[in-house]
Amino acid sequence: MNKDHGRHAAGATPDGAKPTGDAIVVDHLKVKRGTRLVLPDLSVRVPKGQVIGLLGPSGGGKSTLMRSIVGVQVVGGGTVTVLGEPAGSAGLRRRVGYLTQAPSLYSDLTVRENVAYFARVLGASAADVDRAIADVDLTDHADALVVNLSGGQQTRANLACTLVGNPEVLVLDEPTVGLDPVLRRDLWALFRRLSDEGRTVLVSSHVMDEATRCDRLLLIRAGEILSDSSLPELLASTGAEDAEGAFLALIDAANAANPAGSRTEGVA
Amino acid sequence: MNPRITLATAGRILSQLRHDHRTVGLLLVVPCVLIGLLAWIFADSPTPVFDQIGASLLGVFPFVIMFVVTSVSTLRERTGGTLERLMTTPLGKGDLMVGYALAFGLVAIVQAIVATSFAIWVCGLDIKGPAWMLMVIALLDALLGTALGLLASGFARTEFQAVQFMPAFILPQFLLCGLLVARDQMPSILSTISDWLPLSYAVDAMKEVTAQADPNVWKDFAIMGAWIVVALVLGSLTLRRRTP
Question: How many helices (H) and strands (E) does chain B have?
Fold first, then answer.
């Protein structure tokens, strides 16, 4: 991975102190997809300059929450505020970077052509293109067509298209899925570096051992936040030995309280 | 809209085409093969049928081909997730629409030059008006196909549907455009409908250029131009930043 990057820090104060306040404020968010009430009434705050893990079983509303934060989800109620502005507003489109779960790339273009296109759309420079490709360790494959890349390489090319715009808030939907341990370690080091620069990194995952790499953890199940704490706090409160044990304990307790597992709403 | 983003989008679409040699080949060769076939069918005909309908067909090909190419490629943006990603960026809906129109308009110019040259100098198409006017009409036709393809793809959810829109949008216009039966000889209801369809004016303009040394086609151009703008505006309305 390329450590020599020319990225300017986002929101970090000159003495290197972390920015304070909340990057994302979700207040009583309600989202219905089809007939299913995916997020019944969700409120959460994401502090600036941290790596936040959004963890939980699949189908629990992680992607829907992320889509709401980047402003591509039709919401049924409540508010989502990012960097002080309503989610999805025009001023945020340069400041918030979104990584979709499935690679959203032009498979008939090369890695560099994809990253360069998103750079032009986001107003980033040619140096940003090289830096983003180096950050995901694809320099050797920059001129390969995306369709010829492996799944893990496509995931990384996808990430490069998000990094190229130097966003202040990164919303990354399962960026490490399907990657080998070395690449996962390198990407988590990259996320750490981004947060050290003052950026906010919201990362979803269903791999619980990735929890150890986050500053804070949000556990979401059936559209509800079960836990919002740091890992040591979580272990202390559940008495579990590791993140996986803590989450299983919380999910089992929640399932016992609400056996249906997910809420549905009658046809409106 | 932002000119930098519009041009970047047009450039990206052209890069995609550049990697797809077979599509470029088909775009350039298929119209020539069809025109050659048409000239051959009527080679022994006592009346100059090819001179009468050859030019009109030059206007129909770019329309049909661009409609299909555009509706499929924009549907790929929707289903491949790139549209959703673009909707989180500063890209405006107009940037995407005009980017597609610019890229495919450029392809249409090349296609029109190749197909028209082939018709005139290889197949011996006899036209009285200036040849460059045929190319302008072919370009407008291609832009019309692009604009309607963008609009149609807004209503397609799958590739199957997108391909089905071709006969649904195109064949009625083809039947009513005056190529098979002169528009003033159709039943009055059909002739009125054909007065509202853009392909009718493309064929009218082609006929005018074929028959007149000093053709008057500006009204036809204006109506086609209006259709292109309306279809692009309606098409951009089918793009949504937020989806359910």
Answer: 10, 0
| CB-based contact, A88 to chain B, within 8 Å | yes
* CB neighbours of residue A140 within 10 Å: 8
> What value, to the nearest 5°, has the Cα angle with vertex B89 and ends A136 and B71?
100
**Highest-confidence segment of A12-16, A191-195, B165-169:** A191-195
Residue A45 contacts B, CB cutoff 8 Å: no
What is the maximal distance between C-alpha atoms in chain A?
55
Å between B62 CA and nearest CA of chain A: 24
ipTM given for this complex: 0.87
Domains (range + CATH), chain A: 18-93+216-268 (3.40.50.300)
List A residues 97-136 in contact with B (Cβ-Cβ < 8 A): 98, 100, 102-109, 113, 117-118, 120-123
Q: Which of A190-194, B132-136, B140-144, B232-236 reaches the highest mean pLDDT?
A: A190-194
Chain B nearest CA to A233, separation (Å): 35
What are A81-133's pLDDT values in tens digits?
Answer: 999 999 989 999 999 999 998 889 999 999 999 999 999 999 999 999 999 99
Contacts of A105 (CB under 8 A, 6+ apart): A114, A146, A154, A157, A158, A161, B80, B82
Q: What span, in angstroms and rounded, lies between the C-alpha atoms of B150 and A154?
A: 28
What mean pLDDT, rounded, does chain A reach?
87
Is the predicted pLDDT of residue A263 greater than 50, yes or no?
A: no
Using a CB-CB cut-off of 8 Å, the residues of chain A touching B4 are 120, 123
pTM for this model (two decimals)? 0.87
Q: Which residues pair with B243 in a beta bridge?
A: A73
Start-to-end Cα distance in chain A: 52
Across the beta sheet with A216-221, the strand order is A96-99, A169-173, A200-205, A51-55, A216-221, A224-229
What was the pLDDT predicted at B43? 86
